Amino acid sequence: MRYYISDQHFYHDNLNQCMDCRGFESGEAMNEYMISRWNSRVRPKDEVVILGDFCISPKGEDANAVLARLNGRKYLVVGNHDKYLNSKEFDAGYFQWITPYQELKDQKRKVILSHYPIMCYNGQYRRDSGGIPRTYMLYGHVHNTFDEYLVNDFQNQTRQYLREVRGSEEALQVPCQMINCFCMFSDYVPLTLDEWIKVDRERREKMETAGDRCFRAEG
Hints:
Layout: E1 2-5, H1 27-41, E2 47-50, H2 60-67, E3 73-77, E4 95-99, E5 101-106, E6 109-114, E7 135-139, H3 146-158, E8 162-163, E9 172-173, E10 178-180, H4 193-206
Parallel strand pairs: 1-2, 2-3, 3-4, 6-7, 7-10
Antiparallel strand pairs: 5-6, 8-9
């Protein structure tokens, strides 16, 4: 089984009080909860793709300590906070591969993997014979901030456009399937592509537009 998740930010104690407001009593408590939630789902032979910002600590031994406790075969799409990768103490062997960008197949669908949301991603217009989107763009980085509302607005606007598609007698709406795999959206549990599709659809149905919300700038 293959799972996906993003932006755990292990050791990032400040996220309990600012930005995410995760609410744990300490960074240690947050770490333990995230490890527990991961291992409640992932088995030793499962695969988990982490879409960046796995660990905020620049110390390689801190990342090693967490990775050693997480089940499964782990893959990393590098995020802007993964500074531990530069540490001499970090053991890269904990990951099957480490890359800034990747494209994979998942149940006959293409998955575009990037820490940052890509608005015009490879295969964006592709559908199967039944009209179901064949390509999904999985991202992280923006957490549940103002930028995530901008991404949502972009998707809503893009889906209003019709585009001629090879093999179809009529123009079809642009699929634009961009999914934010932010760990808090799944209560820190890695999810399959189908699970993320469901979680993302239900969450976006409840979202307001960026224009309807007032965001306070982070100091």
